[in-house]
Please model this.
Amino acid sequence: METQTALAPVNEKLARQIEELVLKRIAQDSLTLPTMPAVAIKCIEVLRRPEFSFKEAASILEQDPVLAARVLRTATSAAFSGGSQTHSLTEALTRIGAKTAKAVLVEASAAKVFVSRNPQIAEATKRVWQHSVAVGMLARDISALTGGTDSDAAYLAGLLHDIGKPVVAAILLEAERQIVELHSKPWIGSAEWLLVIRSTHRKVGVALTEKWGLPPALCKSIKDCSEYDPGNRSSISNAVCFANALAKQVGIAPDDSDIDDARALVMIGRSVLGADEAVINPLVAGLKTKLERLYK
Model:
């Protein structure tokens, strides 16, 4: 189960009301969830075809300079370039391959969800995004080390496991505006914000990934990533659960999570996944530095 600090009665009631509101809007298809950029959708659709053309995908990608820049950045990274430059989007897509290209486009779309013009949400989600990137990186490596069949899917699941949080934050901000306007009084503090978001974000995250048309297995891993499945040792959700706890244990956390809970999940995860400490420790070492270099 997902660990969380107990809510005060008034905030527990608020959390239930927010969750009911979200579920009602989802059922009525009236919840304004962020949409994946149209260019990303079209490009991914092309790359999913049994027979596709990188040239056709590149012509679509050219319509969004930000997404195009992400693909070029990936193609010129040390992992793909071998020190050589790339001179076109077609060449960049060919170099990284369809699978990586799709992952890059989903990642770029997810990053936009975490960007807000409101200072409250922007500051709160900055840490969430950094934590999510760390979990994605760890989940990919853990999946590969424990016999997972798709480490790239594990990366995406880790990256998206908290994506419901900025959406719930936006809903809370909307409610706050209404309360202040109607009653001319302050609302809940930042600590209460975080507690309510933590208790309601999971269902919203699943709804968003379903709206984006991501694979069912990935959606399921986000839904179930807060507890281990002992019957499926190499599952994506197990890799994400373990990665989530590891990141929190070394201080890369979205909020002031209970470190003891994280340590307990790490211990359980080592047993469930059969993860040797000598193998896992190097993955965590230098993770903060790696993140700083990646997003400096």
Q: What stands out?
A: Residues 1-7 have pLDDT under 50 and may be disordered.
